[in-house]
Amino acid sequence: MDLHINPFAVGLGIGLLTTLFAWLDGIFKRRALVKEVRTLKDHLHTQMEINAAGNDTTKRELDEAKRVAENLRVTNSALKQKPGRAEVHTLTLYDKALHLMQARAPGFAPAWENALKEAETEVQKTETGLLPLIRNVFRPSLNKSNPAPSSAGHNEDFLETDSPSRPEPDSNQPVR
After folding, report:
1. Which of 78, 37, 158 has its CA nearest to residue 70?
2. Contact 125, 175 (CB under 8 A)
């Protein structure tokens, strides 16, 4: 038995065997790459979901922070409009001084009542019509009208005539 092998058949067999080996290797590598691509896609999808949830959370926190900031701005504005402790103390002090002055000075009460009535009518005028707009635009102190010369003169005369005749209170004597 003489093995007579054709060199063409041997070359063809080696080539087909090499091609079969390369083809099978390619199939296994392709399966591994498809599996890796699927894993990477799943990982990317999961990462995008996490980022989207984080972005939503951050957006909600930002909206909440904006809402809180707006509420604080409104509250701050409202608190600026309210009288502070010092203003309330000063108002209480002036009220006490007014009551003491009414008790001590006999002519003070009628002059005070007239001034109070004038102030009330002026405030009522500023609460209706165009004056509230002016009052809101400008400071209330700029909207005050000058007191009438007769009432100012009367107050000055009252202070001048009453003050010198009244003795200065002694610091050792109690205030009535």
Report:
1. 78
2. no
